[in-house]
Write a structure and sequence with these properties.
Elements (H helix, E strand, L loop, with lengths): L9 E7 H6 L3 H13 L8 E6 L3 E7 L6 H8 L5 H8 L1
Antiparallel strand pairs: 1-3, 2-3
Length: about 90
Amino acid sequence: MMEKETGKQVAIKAVNIMKICELNKERHILREKELTVKLKHPSIVKLYNTFKDDTNLYFVFECCNNGSLDEIIRDAKGTMPIELVKTWFA
């Protein structure tokens, strides 16, 4: 998705407010926001903004076109070359 103001490509995470409340995860979602705002590292996705409507909370993140760490680990099927591991966890 493209951010209107800057023209940057972004990723948006939508979290259903009712689901958060049903699962008593309000504290967890607030903590996720706090930590994501505070953490500054080249290997951590930047949080640009948050907003909400009547249904969802939205997190606007920097877009990472190479996939997530979870996807890379899954695709590796249990083995990853040490050089790849070094680049992810340096």
